[in-house]
Structures are given as structure tokens and as C-alpha cells.
């Protein structure tokens, strides 16, 4: 009978599931990983086993990946775990089965379906991260605090943090993922850290500066003044700046859209 291991969606949860499936000794063909919240229907003639998050077991899997496959393989697994693919847990498991057999060369074995699946997930994560480095907007709040919001499909906030920590090293800023209710906090000239323990009313307690409103207004007027109506190309605009990013960009806010 096949055993389906239900694991947490975090990377520690997924790797805890990998450890449980591997240590069971039931064979890889008789095991499958699924996320607890994947919304899929239950399969017939299967045994379900819930896997708790175990940091020590996850660390053992990470150490094994780094020592027996490669550091690059771990980076691939980490990035794939940030994907929004609801089957990512089992895909990572299948990739690691191949990796422990093939060694470091597994990352280039794209003819293998398990490797190709991971490659695709990493491409989607990398692409969204790249786009957001240009689309993220920070708004100046009272108290010299910069606040930016994103609503990405993939959990890319930890990949964005180093980019903005380098660009805005001397600023106090917060980058907030509205979909996952987590944020990166960066004190000026210090290291950033990730948290999901923000108070529910934190946004109500910070107020935008009036100077920021003036600059937003000026920017929107400038954008309109340089636009050429006869050359407007909505399809091209959508290709370069998809609609799903615009709610988090002040220049597209409803209040002054038609200025």
C-alpha cells in the first residue's frame, strides 16, 4: 500500500517529509509527498501519514544534499521549495532520489522528468524575483521608514531581501508580502531579518509623509506629460508590466491615475 506523507509547505516541512519517506524503508515507489494544504482530493487505497516539522531531520537532509550531491543541488532544492507549485514536495523528493544516485551532475540532466520539473520551478521563481527587483516601490512613512508591498505568486521575499539590503543599506525599510503575511525588516546599516509576527494593525499605525504624496503626484504628472497617445500600446505594456504587479505600485493608484 502506498504511503502519502503530508508535510508542511515550508522548506523545513518538505525536507522533514523527505526524511520520513526515505527512512521508512518502504521504497520510493511506495511513497509520495504532499502538502497539507494542497487542496487535492484523497487517493484511494493509500495510507496517510502526517509529518511534523523537524528542524534536526531537515538539517540532516540538507547536509546530505551538500555532501553527497553538491551545493548547487541544495540551492536548486531551496529555490524550488519557494515555488507556488502545489506538487513541489514530491517533485523535490523525486529530484533528490535522482541526485543521490547521479551525484553533482544531476542538475544538468534535463532529459530526466524529475530534474526538468525542478528546473521549471526554479525558472518561474527566478523570473518573478527578477521582475520584482524593478517593480517594487517603497513609500516613505513618518519616522524615516520606507515600506514596500508585494503580492507574488512564489515565496520570493527572501530572494529579494539581499538586493534591497544592498541598494538601501542606509535606510530603515519593510518589505511586506501581503499574500503570505510575512515581512523583511531592515534596520539602517544592519542585517535584515524575516518575520511573520507583525501585529494585525501595523499598517494602521504608520502614516505616509505629505512629501511622499507630493512626489507621487509629480511623478504621475511627469509620466502623463511624456506619453505619446498615438504610440500607446496596451498589449506591449502588459507584457512588460503585468496587471498583477500594479496594485502595489503607487503610480498606478486609483486616486491619481488620470492626472
Describe this structure in words.
- Helix 6 (157-167) links the parallel strand 5 (145-150) and strand 6 (172-177).
- This protein is elongated.
- It has three domains: 2-124, no CATH class; 136-208, no CATH class; 210-259, no CATH class.
- It has a five-stranded mixed sheet with strand order 4-5-6-7-8, covered by helices on one side.
- The termini are far apart.
- The model is unreliable at 255-259 (pLDDT under 50).
- It has eight helices and eight strands; from the N terminus they run E-H-E-E-H-H-H-H-E-E-H-E-E-E-H-H.
- It has helices spanning 11-23, 55-68, 71-81, 88-102, 113-135, 157-167, 210-226, 234-240, and strands at 2-7, 31-35, 46-50, 138-141, 145-150, 172-177, 182-186, 193-195.
- With 259 residues, the chain is an alpha/beta fold.
Secondary-structure map:
Blueprint: E1 2-7, H1 11-23, E2 31-35, E3 46-50, H2 55-68, H3 71-81, H4 88-102, H5 113-135, E4 138-141, E5 145-150, H6 157-167, E6 172-177, E7 182-186, E8 193-195, H7 210-226, H8 234-240
Parallel strand pairs: 1-2, 1-3, 5-6
Antiparallel strand pairs: 4-5, 6-7, 7-8
Helix pairs in contact: 1-2, 1-4, 2-3, 3-4, 3-5, 4-5
Counting DSSP E segments of at least 2 residues, the number of strands comes to 8
Compute the CA-based radius of gyration. 22 Å
Order of helices and strands: EHEEHHHHEEHEEEHH
Unreliable segments (pLDDT under 50, ≥5 consecutive)? Answer: 255-259
Q: How is the largest sheet built, in terms of strand order?
A: 4-5-6-7-8
Strand content: 15-25%
What portion of residues is helical?
Answer: 40-55%
Structural class estimated from helices and strands: alpha/beta
Mean pLDDT across residues = 90
Number of domains: 3
What is the makeup of the main sheet? 5 strands, mixed
Gap between N and C termini, in Å?
A: 65 Å
Oligomeric assembly:
single chain
Shape: elongated
Number of helices: 8
InterPro entries: DNA_repair_put, DUF4130
Pfam families: DUF4130
Domain DUF4130: 87-251
Organism: Lacrimispora xylanisolvens
